[in-house]
């Protein structure tokens, strides 16, 4: 092989190696979950029905010990994603299955249900507008909060005395859990960030690192389209 | 290329007399500069000045707009002077032009007392003048909308000041109104024609409360009460952004507030106070600073060697009152 040919081969292999390295670094730094599309999932009433769950440990992936949200796609399969595509100006009937334990809120202001249709949420079939996170042995495990549209619902934690707790996702309703139901209306088209306001990133300073700072776990986007 | 004249003719010799055969360069440049500077300042003042951010929604916004305009009106002639000088040099002393003096060397290029004194005196006057102007504006504007810390030096004289506590947390601002039962809300609503004292604090890392149209910007530090003042003078929409990089969702840490009439504010405040009352009674007693459970909610959120808070009131998590801030 000529000198020029050998140089070409070396440069080509180097380009491949660099390409894989860049792909790996970017993939590590920017793990983007898949977008789950609900735009064609309107029910006969014109609303979108969504079911999500919060789990104390996802159980797989590069951080199996992290708390996380999961969403059930329109086909009924649990997806590890927090980016949800929704139609604009549409009622969303949300069911959240909360499998994680709770604690007192850092800011009890997030114990108030805000921005839902009717101003309440159903906790295991009973309407609540405020939950005292310092009362009882449940506390609040997470919140589902979309700051830019004023929506926030406290997700009451599973009691500390619970024995049949779920270890990894996806959890089934056979495990101890709380069921939160509420409805809200999507705004106009745009990307709206949402997050949990319980500092549940255990082991990270102020509890707001790790899963709290990684899209796909405790925060994501409502991708609202026309 | 050299000159045959004994008169100062280099570019650094601006006072070349006409008797040397050279035109009066300095006089020409000054005249050109003066005309362009006047035109520029007049155009800026008439066309742009009244639209300069942050507008006129508060007295501090108006004062800051005035400050920006003064600074620009002062800076524009300087900018034009540089451009005029450069353009004049390019035209009058370009190398291809016949009879131009040697651009480098000669006694006038090394020493020109008038030019040196003029340059130093002019720049000194400009810098010191702006220093005095800025200081006066900062004092007269009660901190000019900036955070003055827990013990403000410059305070407004208004007899009725509305305190609004701004609480930063990753990643959202909430607002507490101590004079309305201590209610906490996600909405920033303010009455018009009222002096507001913003008490800015944080429950975790450092944030910065920037209410753009109000021209208020104050750091939100944990366990610190950072006070900033503004007096509203127009109704309208307010954009609030966090102005301190505070984590992943820093870019999402914004909200919109509004300045409304006093009657509308009273109606909103009373309705919100009543609506939030069930949750307000669960909040810790109002304090200028708070300490979230330093061990983290339910424990385990912090490294054991980190104690990020000083002695102040506990916010949430079975609050224990240690001091009153």
Q: Quote the average pLDDT of chain A.
A: 91
User: What's the helical proportion of residues of chain B?
Assistant: 25-40%
At CATH level 2, the architecture of the largest domain in chain B is: Sandwich
Topology-level CATH name of the largest domain in chain B: Immunoglobulin-like
- Largest sheet: spatial strand order of chain A: 4-3-2-6-11-7-8
Helix fraction of chain A by DSSP (H/I, runs of at least 4): 10-25%
The most extensive interface between chains reads:
A-B, 42 and 41 residues
- Radius of gyration of chain A, taken over Cα atoms and rounded to an integer in Å: 21 Å
Q: What would the principal axes of the Cα set say about the shape of chain B?
A: elongated
Helix/strand class of chain A: mainly beta
State the major sheet of chain A: 7 strands, mixed
Question: Could you tell me the radius of gyration of chain B in angstroms?
Answer: 29 Å
- CATH superfamily caption of the largest domain in chain B: Cupredoxins -  blue copper proteins
Give me the secondary-structure topology.
The complex is a heterodimer of chains A (226) and B (325).
Chain A: H1 3-29, E1 35-37, E2 48-55, E3 68-72, E4 78-79, E5 83-87, E6 91-98, E7 121-123, E8 126-128, E9 140-146, E10 151-156, E11 178-185, E12 190-195, E13 219-225
Parallel strand pairs in A: 1-5, 2-6, 5-13
Antiparallel strand pairs in A: 2-3, 3-4, 6-11, 7-8, 7-11, 9-10, 12-13
Chain B: H1 25-47, H2 59-92, H3 107-110, H4 113-140, E1 161-169, E2 172-177, E3 183-185, E4 189-191, E5 195-202, E6 207-211, E7 216-220, E8 226-231, E9 236-242, E10 254-260, H5 262-280, E11 290-291, E12 313-314
Parallel strand pairs in B: 1-5, 4-10, 11-12
Antiparallel strand pairs in B: 1-2, 2-3, 5-8, 6-7, 6-9, 9-10
Helix pairs in contact in B: 1-2, 2-4
A few lines on this structure:
The complex is a heterodimer of chains A (226) and B (325). With 226 residues, chain A is mainly β.
Please name the defining characteristics of this protein.
heterodimer; A: 226 residues; mainly beta; Immunoglobulin-like; seven-stranded mixed β-sheet; four-stranded mixed β-sheet; 1 helix; globular; B: 325 residues; alpha/beta; 2 domains; five-stranded mixed β-sheet; 5 helices; elongated; disordered N terminus; disordered C terminus
